[in-house]
Amino acid sequence: MLPLVPYAERHARLGAVLDRRAVFDDAIETSVRTILDDVRQRGDAALLDLTERFDGVRPDALKVPAARLDTALEALDPDLRRTLEQAAANVRRFHQAEMPASWSHDDGDDVTYGQRISPVERAGLYVPAGTAPLPSSVIMNAVPALVAGVDEIHVCSPPGPDGLPHPLILATARLLGMENVYAVGGAQAIGALAFGTESVPRVDVVVGPGNAYVATAKKLVVGQVGIDSVAGPSEVVVLADASADPTFAAADLLAQAEHDERASAVLVTPDRALAEAVQAEVDRLVATLPRADVLRASLPAYGAAIVTDTMEDALACVDELAPEHLVILSDVADPLWAQIRHAGAVFLGHQTPEPVGDYFAGPNHVLPTGGTARFASALGVGVFLRRQSVIRYSAARLGQSGEAIARFAEAEGLDAHALAVRVRRGG
Question: For residues 249 and 238, is the Cβ–Cβ distance under 8 A?
Fold first, then answer.
């Protein structure tokens, strides 16, 4: 089920994995453009019609009443509530540590320059419905916005048969202190957040995962709003040596492969015996899991056990993939990690399964996919912040450097730029 691939033959398999990023096709984009135009033109009426069409229900109101949020929180299992609270606290602590500070520099002659860091006013959070509720998505997307100091967070999530998002989504939003939740999903939700409607205000940044229609909508509204990323299917690379437990490696692969049929799970190792043992464990464990049908689709199509001749080749293979998640199963995990350039999040050592990052440890689980870890990063407070440059010049400093500035402007053929400097110098 997990194909064994020699290192010399890896390119076809790596190509299949990386090509999953091409989630956009002409038919989807055409459909999404139509949806976005409808939302832009008809507002709430379009949202209600589209929700009825795609979700089979017409909500009584798009905005979820505060009382329903309170009811969902009150009904939450106490043990689960404590777990969600601890997870949110861990994520908050992590993002507080990355919060940048405004700064100012005195350059003499009554000249100062600096940078002011300030949050966006409104953020939109999309939470998909799928086959199960995702309270972790609420936490991971909302907490960095809260830490950044965003004034308003507006959450969109598809309604169920009762016309409301899943109770666990409502409860988690309320647990985090959020009040603005809307029963709308799909590309139409992204349109509502990007353009605004009678019920859903226009936001400044839209974050959150979704299917190909949601991802395409986010791609198309860039420029109207900022976004976190256009995410593709989930992926993991497990880098392992002879010290790895085959059951641990197999379980780590399955933890990502069960997400959906396009998820990718790749073992990279210089130890053929380990690769074969992991293959056997994958086959054994798949038969015990409820999502076996998904695993039987994703693993043959986008999984692999790549056997290299050396650990150096294994490290190079990891960098080729630039994976969303990288699990290093080795007694010398730290030195191996030090040699890797490209990965969204790294999980070091035998006792660090990827789900600790999905749910609890604190670092964000919204990560670059499809090889984009070469240039992109995990979701953080920076998505919700703006950097505003500030300059104060004095007459003395302008007198010293003004002519150089004017000549620079004239070299670019911008004489009015030069004039704006010279009139202040009596020229």
Answer: yes
| pLDDT at residue 21 in the model | 57
311 token code pair: 């650990």
Q: Which of 343, 247, 263 is nearest to 303 (CA)?
A: 263
Domains and CATH numbers, the chain: 4-22+232-361 (3.40.50.1980), 26-227 (3.40.50.1980), 393-425 (no CATH)
**Tokens encoding 393:** 């010049």
The CA-to-CA distance between both ends of the chain, in Å, stands at: 78
Give the active site residues: 324-325
The residue among 153, 162, 133, 175 whose CA lies nearest residue 61 is 162
Positive or negative torsion for Cα 181, 184, 190, 193: negative
Along the chain (427 residues), what's the average pLDDT of each consecutive run of 10 residues? 89 81 77 98 98 96 97 98 98 97 96 97 93 91 98 97 96 98 98 98 96 94 94 93 98 95 96 98 97 96 96 97 97 98 97 96 94 94 97 95 96 97 86
List all residues 6 or more positions away from 221 whose beta carbon is below 8 Å from its beta carbon: 36, 190, 191, 194, 195, 206, 227
Residue among 334, 338, 318 at smallest CA distance from 326 = 318
Cα dihedral: 348, 354, 358, 361 (round 10)? -30
Q: Distance between CA atoms of 132 and 145, rounded to whole angstroms?
A: 24
Helix-strand-coil split of the chain, %, nearest 5:
50, 15, 35
Decide: 148 and 381 in contact? Cβ < 8 Å.
yes
Q: How many residues does the chain have?
A: 427
Contact 216, 35 (CB under 8 A): no
In whole angstroms, give the CA distance from residue 175 to residue 74: 10
pTM beyond cutoff 0.90:
yes
Look up residue 290 and give its DSSP letter.
Answer: T
* CA 60/CA 144 separation, integer angstroms: 31
Strands 235-240 and 325-329 come out as parallel
Tell me, what amino acid is at 159? P
3 state SS of 201: coil
| Separation CA 324–CA 318 (nearest Å) | 11
Whether residue 370 contacts residue 18, with contact meaning beta carbons closer than 8 Å, is answered with yes
Q: How far apart are CA 319 and CA 346, in angstroms?
A: 13
Distance CA 45, CA 49 (A): 6
Cα–Cα nearest to 330, from 346, 345, 309: 346
User: For residue 307, what are its two tokens?
Assistant: 């056997």
